[in-house]
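hey m, so remember when u said the tokens were messed up on ur end? i reran from scratch. heres the input so u can diff it against urs
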Amino acid sequence: MDLNTEIDKLIYYYSYHTTLVLEMNTASNYFWNTQLAQLKRIQSDKNYIHIKDRKPDKYDKLGHSLFEKFELIEEHTPKMSLIYLFSLFEAFNKDFFQTLFKYRPELMKSKRKHLNYETILEFSDINDLHEYITQKEVNKYGYFDIDNIAQMLMDKFNISLKEEFEYWKQLRENYFRRNIIVHNDGKISSTYLRKLELPNEELNKELICDNVYIGECCRNIQTYIDFISSSIKKKVNL
């Protein structure tokens, strides 16, 4: 299988799974809103016995908090979707560049990086050595934040996300919003302030993450996948 085919497979896989996250988020929202509407209809029925007027049963421990539960599910589902979307984003970057360097190891050439003789002589096959270097190079991408990825693309391929990618600002904000959901319960942190160049008064303000936001984030990530793939293909003459 050639590099072009491998890249196309990656594009399809990650685009499909990104869309799937959006569909799951939408389906979950529809399901729980339907349940909430049904509960409201039951409570408005003239034959409905208010919970405080009837004898308690095994379901009472659930009944008191159903409305609150639906509201929490509606709040948490988009947040979980955002977290998973950027798991896909990071996995795409690792898989994409691992595939690229596997087929084009010359792209990893650098005068700043060296291997000692001891490491080189552990490999009797040049392909095994290439695989080792590729893994070593790509593993660090899993620890890069989105600004590091942008700098790597500029340094190695002369691709400017800031200047060339239409949704760069939006995707970058999506990424750092994911971080504060994971690490700061969705409230603006000092890192978010600094990265987005916001005034100090915004510190600890809670940011909204709803279904509309998730839809826009899916678009940004899918567009990024297409942009990186097409840009790199041009750079390596595919």
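this time it looks ok to me. Residues 51-63 have pLDDT under 50 and may be disordered. if urs says something different then somethings off w ur setup not the seq
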